[in-house]
Amino acid sequence: MAKRPIPRTSSQKASSRPVDLRLMRLPGLPEVQPGDDLAEQIATAARKSRIAFENGDILVIAQKIVSKSEGALVSLATISPSPQAHAIAQRQKKDVRLVEVILQESRRLVRSDPVLIAETRHGYVCANAGVDHSNVPGEDMVTLLPRDPDLSAKNLAAALRKRTRKRIAVIISDTFGRPWRLGLTNVAIGASGLPVLQDLRGTRDRQGKPLIATILAVADELAAAAGLLMGKSEGSPVILIRGYRYKPASEPASCIIRPAAEDLFR
């Protein structure tokens, strides 16, 4: 089986030192609307809260507000369901219009019973293809995943640097379930400015034993840590992480998706 090379952009020296992390909510963000300048809103909220950004800071931003600002919203009233959507909706007792949106956002259905698990256009495998009702005003509105989460992260990082004159990495996070484990956790679906994977192959553990397969999904770990402060009802969609040492990198979060040829469970 061919192995995909993993970019080695993280610093072994930096990662070997103890790290004390600080995670801080960014309060004061308004309800995000389509077309809003999200970078400007974040910079303004930080100023009002007397939070001064530093080089190397990481912002973990909830996918929902990125989708809202980019207008990735759909009114179910505009949807004409297909026969496939009708069949699935009847079986699952779901809104047939919602099922149709999920199908439109899917590259393929992984399973449709008892829940809808889909592979999105981006390659993510998740419930309902990322289509979501929560934290969206109105009964008939749903949000979609950003069209290109890595590009969204890149644009936000560039806009924030212009406004703050600081080098700030950006992770766009979403909440995913996991096979074989209960509960949800935040993962990175978009990233800019930092390594998303830390390749430890070729290094040694504390006992001097060689590591031959260890690759850490550090962007997912940072997203999960930020998720502890985000909550679902606290209204804290932006979390500042300070103290994580890394070398700036241009790795996209899409690097984390396991290639189909290496997926043992397809």
What would you say this structure looks like, in words?
By secondary structure, the protein is α+β, with helices and mostly antiparallel strands. Helices cover 26% and strands 22% of the residues. The protein contains seven helices and twelve strands. The chain has helices at 12-15, 38-48, 63-69, 83-92, 96-104, 149-164, 218-230, and strands at residues 22-25, 58-62, 73-75, 106-111, 117-120, 125-127, 141-143, 169-178, 181-192, 198-199, 215-216, 238-242. A five-stranded mixed sheet has the order 1-12-2-8-9. It has a three-stranded antiparallel sheet with strand order 4-5-6. Strand 8 (169-178) and strand 9 (181-192) form a beta hairpin. Helix 2 crosses helix 6. It is globular and about 55 Å long. It starts with 11 loop residues before the first helix and ends in a 24-residue tail after the last strand. Residues 9-16 have low confidence and may be disordered.
Outline of this structure?
This protein is an alpha+beta fold. It contains 7 helices and 12 strands.
The quaternary organization reads as single chain
Content of β-strand = 15-25%
Strand tally: 12
**Number of continuous helical runs:** 7
Order of strands, widest sheet = 1-12-2-8-9
Shape: globular
Structural class based on helices, strands and sheet pairing: alpha+beta
Sheet bearing the most strands, described? 5 strands, mixed
Query: Could you estimate the helical fraction of the residues in percent?
Result: 25-40%
How far apart lie the N and C ends?
A: 15 Å
The topology string of helices and strands comes to: HEHEHEHHEEEEHEEEEHE
Q: What are the segments in which pLDDT stays under 50 over at least 5 consecutive residues?
A: 9-16
Over the alpha carbons, how many angstroms does the gyration radius reach?
A: 20 Å
Instruction: Report the average pLDDT across residues.
Output: 90
